[in-house]
From TrEMBL:
It comes from Cryptosporangium japonicum. InterPro entries: Flavodoxin/NO_synth (IPR008254), Flavoprotein-like_sf (IPR029039). Residues 3-161 form the Flavodoxin-like domain. This is Flavodoxin family protein.
Amino acid sequence: MRSLVIVESMFGNTRTVADAVAEGLAPAGPVTVLDLADAPPAPHVGVDLLVIGGPTHAFGLSRPNTRHAAEQQGAAHRARGIREWLADLSPCLPGTAAAAFTTRIPKKFVTGSAAKAAARQLERHGYRRAAPPEDFFVLDTVGPLRDGELDHAKAWGRRLAASLQDRTREGEAR
């Protein structure tokens, strides 16, 4: 199973989670982690699983104004985010699986998730949902990650790999 993890990260926390997810996926086959700036417009070619990760900004995917606000807090400049990349995404090959995750602050009564928005967009492009969107928590805008989140990310990666391997076995048995 070949996996590609594409990540938008402002302060490094989402990238750290992406690397941990990749570590969980690795026993199932080759995994590549790419910064969004390096992501191809047709990432599904030669890939069995596409994983998209990004921070939740203002209850969803980042926008130019929320990225600018992050820059004001010390984040690296990002001309494009997952929102824009998904808008330009090529339709996927039949059967390509995808999953999405986000990093966000654990506040009660805060709704919205970049992962849920990304998962909906991936499905609109024809991707098959490999798992429900997943949230990983940072303690503040710039981090750090909440204790246990890297183990959570590795475990999620292992579950993604196992679910796809189970589906492959089911398909072969038919």
